[in-house]
Amino acid sequence: MPSLTEISPDQHAPPRTKGPELAVIVPTFNEHDNVIPLVDRLQAVLGGIDWELIFVDDNSPDGTADAAWDLAAQYHNVRCIKRLGRRGLSSACAEGILSTNAPFVVVMDGDLQHDESILPAMLAKVRAGADIAVGSRYGGEGSSGEGLSPIRQWGSTLATRLATLVAGQELADPMSGFFMVRRDLFVDVAPQLSAEGFKILLDLVVTATRKGTAPAIAQVPYVFRPRHAGESKMSPLVVLQFLGLWLSKLSGGVLPTSFLLFALVGFSGVAVHLTVLWLLTSVVPETFLLAQVAATIVAMTWNFFLNNSLTYADRKLHGAKLWTGLLGFYVVCSMGGVANISIASMIYEARPAPLIAGLAGALMSSVFNYAVTRIFTWK
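The chain above was modelled as a monomer; its predicted structure follows.
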């Protein structure tokens, strides 16, 4: 009888099987009624291709993960990753892609607006040498169909123009959440990608370009369909997050997307503060101090709730944590105010230039508030 040292590890391992060639990554949140139809449609178009489907669910309250797990019990090539305590489309895409060993991965929405029938054509493009194949609503025979309202159509067109400025090449549909990529390319750039926001394609292209050679991109046109079930995740906040990502890439990644959004919220808070101060002093002019205190509290409250929905949408606070977070935000911002005054006073004493001193103090308090609230409030 051979000793343990004489037995090859392969004698204990199950027979090896070839992994899938294509992994379909579907990030989900409240897509319960779309899970079964999506699987049915993928089966209909991916015959002859070795593929797997990975749902990445952000703890949907409607039972999306349960529906996906039920299907996983029936089909060997269906899996579901349920994420707890973290949210966000970009990070969900990355987590799904990094969980497979398939050489090619495709990201698509779970609402059936993306036309799964073009998947074989997209796969043919990357097999032929393209680094990324983008399902485009605007190239060739592509169309946004009835899937986009006129406002969303206008916003998508604007995003296309902005994206071209930082991508170094024309992207017909940079807002597309429907794209296929070589997994090795994604793994190479993954550490530099932003985990924030809802549009990962632009981030992927820009980051890959700045690491070396611009990726070869193929466009595959399709008609964007109306949502099958559930509610759209698109909102003005998503547009602002895209603009934050664009500005971050424009700065070469020096300024994180979340900081830019935090600063944007801060500027809006200044407008809120001045508006409230003007209203209160117009009514009772002699109570400036009380008006200033009230305006400060209103502005901080405004900043907190807007940051909770925009800057930290992937870490959004709910329930009791929302109110304890608000109290903590008050404390941090008060400390930031002290830092603002201290820095501004020091600079003014060294050089009596009010605007420069005031700007330096405001910048210092912004950085302080951002860093501390990111650690303690939205940790």
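The mean pLDDT is 79.
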